[in-house]
Design a protein that fits this description.
Layout lengths: L2 H20 L7 H7 L4 H29 L10
């Protein structure tokens, strides 16, 4: 598997996890379902933290793929 294919697969999986957590127009997310079922506050907080970390990870992967396509090293290598 090439680096491009690997990054594309990681991005696709990360997008799917983010949609599972926050939902979309067609699908209820886990967070919305947890509100409907009146889950405990600690559980809601945990789901929101998962969603935020997944969105951050997705942005990092997209940035890495963008740099890879331009033939550059990602910024995290230098810092």
């Amino acid at each position: 598997m090439s680096m491009e294919e690997h990054l594309t697969l990681l991005i696709r999986n990360s997008e799917a996890r983010a949609i599972d957590l926050k939902g979309s127009k067609k699908v209820k997310g886990l967070i919305r379902e947890a509100y409907e079922y009146k889950m405990p506050e600690w559980f809601m907080k945990h789901l929101k933290e998962l969603k935020n970390s997944e969105e951050k990870w997705l942005k990092e992967l997209q940035e890495e793929q963008r740099y890879f396509r331009q033939g550059l090293n990602p910024p995290f290598i230098y810092g």
